[in-house]
Design brief:
The protein is of the alpha/beta class. It folds into 3 domains: 121 residues, Rossmann fold, CATH 3.40.50; 227 residues, pyruvate-formate lyase- activating enzyme (Alpha-Beta Horseshoe); 55 residues, Nucleic acid-binding proteins (OB fold (Dihydrolipoamide Acetyltransferase, E2P), Beta Barrel). The protein is built from 14 helices and 21 strands. The strands form 6 sheets. Strands 2-1-3-4-5-6 form a 6-stranded parallel β-sheet, sandwiched between helices. Helix 8 packs parallel to helix 9 and helix 12 packs parallel to helix 14. The chain starts with a strand and ends with a strand. The structure holds S-adenosyl-L-homocysteine (SAH), iron/sulfur cluster and FE3-S4 cluster. Iron/sulfur cluster binds next to helix 6. The site of FE3-S4 cluster has 13 residues, from helix 1 and helix 6.
Length: 433
């Protein structure tokens, strides 16, 4: 009973957690496999952020159960946010042997042994301290170029639509020295990029170390190590962070800054702590300090009570900012959240879809504008590996745009200077100079 297969859904945090899980299991003799057919333990690290994310996982639970029909004894596990949200309900289906929430991964080896002797196991205890700081994650990125480093867990905001505070618990920051050690270690092993992860990185604080200070500490490891981070929140993205970014070439000039809605009335109902004007002020500050900075965002269409006018406010904000890229969603009511308890989910599905389509259409146009404006520019790209286009390599620019260029034998982890010659709305077509 020692081969483990894990599918990972949801955000980058979950990818980082799966790396921690493989490390914990590896120490107890479990081996990682990428083939579900040969696994003794089949698990999904799950996401609850929208209903369709959960539906997809329900489908996977069926597939996992078909897989074990021919091979009794195979254990099925649900980890992560959906485990935390649904708890016993998952065990009650009779299709799952292990249910482990995001703070319970140290117990997985014990849970697996107990489940193997026939008793389904559940641990959904949330913690105020757990940061897995001492665990050296098993890196899943095959190219060996870019590593996720989780710097905090949980979230103390209570955006009314969001399930994350319930599934991930209270916010806690990880020991800054353990973060720097992990970044040094991956750099020594040849990685050239780290992404510091948290639901709200700007509220990072460990002893007297702020997020700006942490960024500087990681960036100072080596000029060849690129530093990225996500996610920033407009209400607490400080000037100090922006100044730290501007002062260091190896901190990538990219900020993922979700705005969610362009309407103050909706922002207030969402319990976001910033206004439209506050958001635009942050964008102006970013651009005044770093004119070349890429800005990406998240937006929700059709939140409770959203009118046509609110929707127009969202469109006009997107028009005004000109995001490089956006993740765009229809509002999905999450049981137990403040919005679910307080406000009816009253925008009809067809209206949500239509508004989302308008948002997508506008963003595709603005992305294309932003990418076209790059034509003729020279960029430094970190090579990641072969591109989907044959005979080409790909990598990202500092502002997080995917660049492709003809394969000249460059290796993953090398930096190349390129000239942008053409683009689509998601890729820059470049040549090496
Ligand atoms: N911590 C990050 C976001 C984490 S969730 C932040 O605050 O920016 C990622 C994105 O999912 C959110 O930014 C939001 O746009 C979207 N999202 C969260 N809850 C949602 C819901 N109930 N319905 C639709 N989209 C949602
Ligand atoms: Fe959710 Fe808001 Fe926390 Fe982001 S900041 S995880 S949207 S509650
Ligand atoms: Fe999903 Fe949990 Fe991340 S709900 S978005 S996997 S924090």
């Amino acid at each position: 009973m020692n081969k483990v297969y894990i599918e990972t859904y949801g955000c980058q945090m979950n990818v980082a957690d799966t790396e921690v899980i493989f490390s914990i299991l590896g120490k107890e003799g479990y081996q990682r496999t990428e083939k579900m057919e040969e696994a003794d333990v089949v698990m999904a690290n799950t996401c609850s952020v929208r209903d369709n994310a959960e539906q997809r996982i329900r489908g996977r639970i069926e597939v996992f159960n078909q897989a074990r029909r021919g091979r009794p004894g195979v254990l099925v596990g649900i980890l992560g946010c959906m485990a935390e949200r649904l708890k016993e309900e998952l065990l009650a289906t009779g299709k799952v042997d292990i249910v482990a929430g995001p703070d319970a991964y140290r117990n997985l080896p014990a849970m697996l042994s107990a489940a193997a002797s026939g008793t389904p196991q559940i641990n959904v205890q949330l913690s105020r301290e757990e940061t897995y700081a001492d665990i050296e994650p098993v890196r899943l990125d095959k190219a060996g170029v870019s590593a996720f480093i989780s710097i905090m867990r949980g979230c103390n905001n209570v955006c009314s639509y969001c399930v994350v505070p319930y599934t991930r618990g209270a916010e806690r920051s990880r020991d800054a020295h353990s973060i720097v050690r992990e970044a040094c270690d991956v750099f020594r092993r040849g990685y050239r990029e780290v992404t510091l992860l948290g639901q709200n990185v700007d509220s990072y604080r460990w002893n007297d170390i702020s997020f700006a200070r942490l960024l500087a500490m990681v960036a100072d490891i080596d000029p060849l190590l690129r530093v990225r981070f996500a996610t920033s929140n407009p209400y607490d993205l400080t000037d100090e962070v922006l100044e730290t970014m501007a002062a260091r070439e190896n901190i990538c000039k990219h900020i993922h800054l979700p705005f969610q809605s362009g309407s103050d009335r909706i922002l207030e109902k969402m319990r976001r702590r910033n206004t439209r004007e506050g958001y635009l002020e942050r964008v102006a500050k970013i651009r005044s300090l770093m004119p070349e900075c890429g800005i990406t965002t998240d937006v929700i269409a059709g939140f409770c009570s959203e009118t046509e006018e609110d929707h127009q406010d969202t469109l006009s904000l997107m028009e005004e900012v000109g995001f490089d890229w956006a993740f765009m969603f229809q509002y999905s009511e999450r049981p137990g959240t403040l919005a679910a308890r307080k406000y009816p989910d009253d925008v009809p599905p067809e209206v949500k879809t239509r508004r989302l389509n308008e948002i997508i259409e506008l963003q595709n146009r603005r992305s294309l504008d932003r990418y076209r404006a790059m034509i003729g520019r020279q960029l430094k790209v970190l090579v990641e590996g072969p591109s989907k286009r044959g005979g080409q390599l790909c990598g990202r620019s500092s502002d997080n745009k995917m660049c492709v260029f003809p394969d000249g034998g460059q290796k993953p982890g090398e930096y190349v200077d390129v000239l942008v010659e053409d683009c689509t709305s998601a890729t820059l077509i470049t040549k090496i100079i």
